[in-house]
């Protein structure tokens, strides 16, 4: 016996199996991201102004990425429409753009990520704080934190061979501070969400000249990694989870586009269904980003 | 009679003012449960006997057609509603919102005939695996507390600049005392993980959660030694996290406090 | 999206099975896409976990009864396996917490849900609705594999240094993140797999029930069991993801040093934790956890209701009383279960408004449960009751669930919780529901559907021994816990609350009396008694697979629902010819009919 | 276009119209994004208004995607009831959780806590 309604819709529900399946799956995804959004609100309301950085993300890049994702959503649905009109070649073209957009989105996101990993905040013992970059041997330092400054003993494997040489404690390092600190800026422009745009420009061009910073003066040092603050924690959690969805969606779409396309010859109706179902998932991913972008970048 | 029922159900002894109401509510709910259980179990046994296949080889397609079950369901709902609206909710308002007044409108301490504070206020900070207590001292004011001051030498985050902190009293770990027959307010928080402050004869239990301060209140009615149970899993020695609560006469309490406040200022920093 | 990649291959898979070519052991029993095999895989794996969870509990009960004494029989083995925490065969406090957390986790997520929901659901639901299989057979297989992997991760975590999770099955932060071992990380990873598994499974259930009902199988002709599964699947689909979100955040806290659930000024291991950014909230975890965990407890009981309903209808030889009322009740239980969760959190500093809301919803949700039980009870009236083994378990379920459910009522009132929160009263409350409740329902289901799955009956005498032994010892275990709880004995006490006993000072008011402490020993003995009475069952189970009495027809219980109209055991694809449904599910003793049962697919 | 996109026959004309609709929605989405970003640079003095407007625009965009790209607008009742239930549970989670976290009078967040 064959499983019914895999291809054709069941008359009384008007749905084929996979379509119902994907909607159910999306319902659970709504609750998954819903849980994270709810947490975002709670943490945000809980946080004091100094502990919730503003304007550290690059808005033009974010906006551009939003366009990329929206465009990919449109090409999915256009591709599907092309197939409906039996135009396989056109479908292929549109869907190829979708996949490229997905890759583009992910690449841009990873550039943004790496930018954060090399951007630091220092809490000085005297209470003031500063953001900026750290240079070591002329290169940008990655992933430093307070512990890095203390140095580390050599790592040896079981046989006693040195796997990683010891790093000496760092007494002083070169730091290029940004023009303003987000929490200072927030104080000046009381209550405005902005304060950021000086920041952006500062970051882009007007970095102050490098200064020497003494480890002894530092209470805490952190790159803009999840552990930096609850804001970055939720930022990375949400965007990474979203990125994972983009990746999975792209893989599925690419599979259907490439090796899976044989089905078009044998069972075109089912093939179109697959496009529709993968498309539904893709639009959902887009939909999540539509909320993520203003919440994380702008508010 | 009621005491007999309570003993039968192994209620612990009762030594606080509001505890009576906790017990009453527990008893009322259990009466409801007991009645329901009894009715159903009698019916159950009867039915199993009467309609066993040996005695009743041919089942009835229609079965029971009356309405008694509907009345029972409505009855249960109504009784639950009465318990909820009539008792549970007002009582909880009393526990969570209606705190005894410690100060009058002008901010002066309210005192009893002997000039002693009418309400005892204690700050409780739980830690793995013990209890820290703080008393406000003579002025009746606690030092300001802010988590940003927390450090190894200042575990409670007391504002070092606040003069009110100077006469605060910190008895040894795990030792708490209160005067009998006077309302007590405790303000609970924790330094590390979630604990729970429970004293069963007083019928109080309250979570101690890091980052927040939660207040609760009770009025002890009987002098004596009590133990504070930690009622929330807090690590490998959770089972061992016991505190002492001594309910003393006013005189003894004053003496105790005076003794503990010697050198109070130094225990702080 | 997983569906898109998999579902439609079923077509090909079927073609392959159609020619009945010889299948390898692997493709037939391990990587099977047949819903029945998957059901059996779930069942057997989950029974193992049930036994394992029980063994963990026996070791804990030993420690509670005889604190600091070496565990008999397995003590040396424990020491060999786990090292320091089981030194000399004595359970250390850390290990006790490991066992406690894992007993809860394993019982709930790896034993009861996979048995009651996944095993019975996978095996029975498609048969009951007259479908050839589930909608997405590949997804189905993936669901079992995720479950299996999750189980392996949970088991593996026992053997890592420091052992498995120790923060209780509730894994409250900050405790769960502060314990310096990796157990919690494994727990979270395991949970992610288990969550994925139930997600895949339940999406499949819902789609199958909506799409693959046989012609004529309208919603109001569905057996009640299918309804129960339908609602359960919805609970899993919609309540689990927030826990997944919370798990991801806790994982970040644990691995990447974030502070989602950690406030400012926290001490870790007695030192101020200035490496943490702070700003998180411990209560957030509790809310997200209970948002899942309350619906989860109904996931534990609804399949039980379903099984019981089938067995009772069959063995009273009459229709269930109030079928519609039952359906609407489970629907409202499912609906309401999403908005009562904070009744687990009354003592977290809750104000009057919130507590009023949650107390009210909690009281309201008890009403449909009362209706369900009432309908079952009244179904007995006028029946011709056969006391076979499944029916015995089903009948015992009723008062046992009654006790567990009724004791939920006081716990639903916040003022009462001032006395009873986190005491053994709570332990007794929910164990009455899940142990003599759901486990009995599971036993009833196993005895009932065993002949369909194997073509052989289980031995009734052994079954009756199993039943009476289990019933008596279950009550001996859990009844005293109400008294202990009322007296103020708390759960998760490594030494069985000896620290708080009168023995430590005669003048302490309210310390636990020797009588209360002594109960620990009696309970433990009863738990060992319970173990002994499981032996007939285990033997019966395996022995009957190969040696049990062969059934003479496809319908040994003379039942009406569709699964009994399929061949025994049903082949891949289930029915010889697609069934057509003409009537409701419980047409027993129809006046004027020739037999006392009229199958759903019997043409009028 | 009920069930549309019906898998069975439908003329290219239908699809053509749909394509125009998609492009229109695409345009609307771009405009929405620009509006949100623009508003940010304009510095509306009230944070609350900024948040409300931003979320409002986002919701509009989201419903456009859901209704047209995901064809919700001519979807079946089954899907509607599913999404309605999900929306309800999501809303109750969000609202009740936030309410429960910030209402309690007996619970004071420590940093703001003033000694008495
Ligand atoms: C399957 C599991 C299950 C089920 C169905 C329930 C059902 C209920 N539970 Fe329970 N509960 C748990 C599992 C379950 N619970 C668990 C695991 C915990 C502890 C978690 C932890 O902290 O680790 C817990 C804890 C728990 C608490 C928190 C206690 C605390 O920690 O302070 C509360 C409080 O409201 C509660 C209430 C209820 C209520 C009101 C019901 C209601 O739905 C019950 C409704 C049922 C009835 C009202 C019965 C009706 C029957 C009749 C009328 C017929 C009677 C006939 C005869 C007896 C013959 N439960
Ligand atoms: C579904 C859930 C479930 C089930 C079924 C059980 C079953 C049992 N539980 Fe448990 N329990 C929990 C969920 C469950 N528990 C949870 C969530 C906690 C809280 C954990 C925490 O604090 O975080 C807890 C805690 C808990 C405690 C408190 C520990 C403490 O706080 O320190 C105790 C104490 O006695 C206990 C006892 C028991 C006993 C004696 C059983 C018995 O009823 C077990 C009976 C088992 C059987 C009868 C097994 C039969 C098996 C077979 C027959 C196998 C056959 C195999 C084949 C055929 C292959 N449990
Ligand atoms: Cu502190 Cu348990
Ligand atoms: Cu609950």
Give descriptors for this structure:
B: 269 residues, Immunoglobulin-like, 5-stranded mixed β-sheet, 4-stranded mixed β-sheet, 5 helices, elongated, disordered C terminus, D: 116 residues, 2 domains, 3 helices, 3% strand, flat, binds heme-A, binds dinuclear copper ion, binds copper (II) ion
Describe the structure in your own words.
The complex is a heterotetramer of chains A (299), B (269), C (604) and D (116). Chain A has two domains: 168 residues, Up-down Bundle (Four Helix Bundle (Hemerythrin (Met), subunit A)), CATH 1.20.120; 104 residues, no CATH class. In chain A, 57% of the residues lie in helices and 12% in strands. Chain A has nine helices and eight strands. In chain A, helix 1 runs parallel beside helix 9. By secondary structure, chain B is α+β, with helices and mostly antiparallel strands. Chain B contains five helices and nine strands. The longest helix of chain B is centred in the first third of the chain and has 32 residues. Chain C is built from 20 helices and two strands. In chain C, a hairpin with a 2-residue loop joins strand 1 and strand 2. In chain C, helix 4 runs antiparallel to helix 6 and helix 18 runs antiparallel to helix 19. Chain C is globular, with a radius of gyration of 24 Å. The N terminus of chain C is likely disordered. Chain D is mainly α and 116 residues long. Chain D is built from three helices and one strand; from the N terminus they run H-H-H-E. Chain D folds into two domains: 64 residues; 31 residues. In chain D, helix 1 packs antiparallel against helix 2. Chains in contact: A-C, A-D, B-C, B-D, C-D. Bound molecules: heme-A (HEA) (2 copies), dinuclear copper ion and copper (II) ion. One heme-A binds next to helix 4, helix 6, helix 17, helix 19 and helix 20 of chain C.
